[in-house]
Sequence to fold (230 residues):
Amino acid sequence: MEKIIISIAVAFTLISCGSSTNYTVYGGHSATSTNSLSVTEKMGAGEPSSVKIKMYAAWLCPGADCTSCTKLTDYGDTPQEKELYATKPILFEGAPADGTYNCVVIKMSDMLTFTPSADAVTKNPGGNCDSTKEFTFDFYRAGSDGDSGWKDINGNIITPHGSPTAPVEDTVYLFMSTDPSKFVAPNVFTLLTAATVPGNGTFVMDFTNRVSTYYAGNFCWLEGFVPSFK
Fold:
């Protein structure tokens, strides 16, 4: 079964604001990681030149089981679209307590919009990838080629909808933990290093070689990700 997983990137940077601590979450992309944590059966080739995501909220959690989480900025029921290839777009801000955070949770739409780079088009010949067009796909879908059993922040199961030819937007959660065995769900992924507050760092999900064609070249997709703190 082909599991198509979203690729995103965010950067967490600590800034001092008087006696308080403000944690600002930036959007971005990276081509520096070499470890692959993709939950896919095949790799793509090349990077996107643009990625747009719809964000609802984000949490930092001290335990690898993703409990006792601190919510950062919450956009409510109306998500904000963020262009990750823009110059440091701010996704969220908050004031978590000092400490080590072994889990990051992001609430977002499962509809991703991206533009493949010219290099990605060259590396995926025979498909419909086009560097002059935006592509949108449903990465949490129903059916034999989709996925199921994803959980929300309260442990409730999220029912997938849609298909490659008839996408349906769902609100999903991505859990990234330094020990994913502590949070049992298909939507938990390995976080290579924890976040530390106070402290400077960058939280990266790498897009390198994640553009691919699927369904005999009829779709242009992003597949997999590599999350880590740098």
The first helix runs from residue 118 to 123. DSSP finds one helix and 17 strands in the chain. The first strand starts at residue 10 and ends at 17. Residues 52 and 150 are 22 Å apart (CA to CA).
